[in-house]
Design a protein that fits this description.
The chain has one domain (3-251): Glycoside hydrolase/deacetylase (TIM Barrel, Alpha-Beta Barrel), CATH 3.20.20.370. The protein starts with a strand and ends in a 5-residue tail after the last strand. Helix content is 37%, strand content 18%. It is globular, with a radius of gyration of 17 Å. It is of the alpha/beta class. Strand 1 (3-12), helix 1 (16-25) and strand 2 (33-36) form a beta-alpha-beta unit. Strands 1, 2, 3, 4, 5, 6, 7, 8 and 9 form a nine-stranded mixed sheet that branches. The chain is built from nine helices and nine strands. The protein has helices at residues 16-25, 43-49, 88-92, 101-119, 134-147, 180-192, 211-216, 221-230, 233-241; strands at 3-12, 33-36, 56-61, 125-128, 151-152, 161-164, 167-171, 199-204, 244-247.
Length: 252
């Protein structure tokens, strides 16, 4: 038995600066799964940067940043009057789930198709960006089931594990990093908590910063700290000393 760790970098496509930060982390071999925001203009740039890297590529299904790939008139529950998606703050501000399952399903299918056109194949998995709407999560799960893909949502409340493909996966605690040292310590503390025979997942948001990400995301400096920590050559040696086997979605 081994201690398996899947390290996932989310938000490829959010901006070109984020893309460059994620790509840098791939050189150490720690990050082996990358989630793409296929609706964003920088998605094509991000996918090009993945060339030559052996990583699992997933759809980071998004209904809270940028514009839908659907005609906005066909997904009214997802958009503001400008045609942009509601921001994540709009979802957090209310308790009701105002997302239409049918509209979310439609949009996620189009995002899968867009990513397929960029990759030349289906993505390796589907996960979700930022929004915890039950209808959105059900739609992501339904699209994944239809296409025979693993889906990563979030563990049920009060639980830290979920089923992904054929595996039970524990999601390690997430929080913004206050410094490079803090990012490194938080990551290694999570890795050290993995038990023999267990599979765990670290969800990370490495990236660099540009004007777009500063204006459209509440997660900023932490991205740079994670990018630096996950790009450190010494990190993979420390994981090896902990007996960690690094995996990706393709083995789940």
């Amino acid at each position: 038995m081994s201690k398996r760790l899947l390290v996932r970098a989310d938000d490829l496509g959010f901006s070109e600066a984020v893309n460059y930060g994620i790509e840098r982390t791939l050189h150490t071999g720690i990050v082996r799964s990358v989630g793409v925001m296929a609706n964003m203009p920088a998605a094509e740039h991000g996918v090009r940067l993945l060339s030559g890297h052996d990583v699992a590529v997933g759809l980071h299904a998004c209904i809270s940043a940028g514009e839908p790939l659907s005609d906005s008139s066909l997904v009214p529950s997802l958009v503001e009057s400008t045609g942009q998606f509601h921001g994540s703050a709009a979802y957090r501000a209310v308790e009701e789930d105002f997302v239409s399952f049918e509209e979310a399903y439609r949009e996620i299918r189009l995002q899968v198709d867009q990513l397929k056109s960029l990759l030349g194949r289906l993505p390796d998995y589907i996960d979700i960006h930022a929004v915890l709407s039950p209808s959105f999560m059900r739609a992501a799960a339904a699209v994944a089931e239809k296409l025979g893909l693993p889906v990563s949502l979030l563990p049920d409340r009060g639980c830290d594990s979920m089923r992904v493909g054929g595996s039970i996966v524990r999601v390690l605690p997430m929080r913004p990093a206050a410094s490079v040292q803090d990012a490194r310590k938080h990551f290694l503390d999570g890795a050290a908590s993995i038990s023999l025979g267990e599979t765990a997942m670290a969800i990370c948001h490495p990236g660099y910063l540009d004007a777009y990400i500063m204006e459209h995301s509440s997660l900023t400096e932490s991205r740079t700290y994670e990018a630096e920590a996950l790009s450190s050559a010494g990190m993979i040696d420390q994981l090896a000393r902990l007996g960690i086997e690094l995996i990706d979605y393709r083995v789940l």
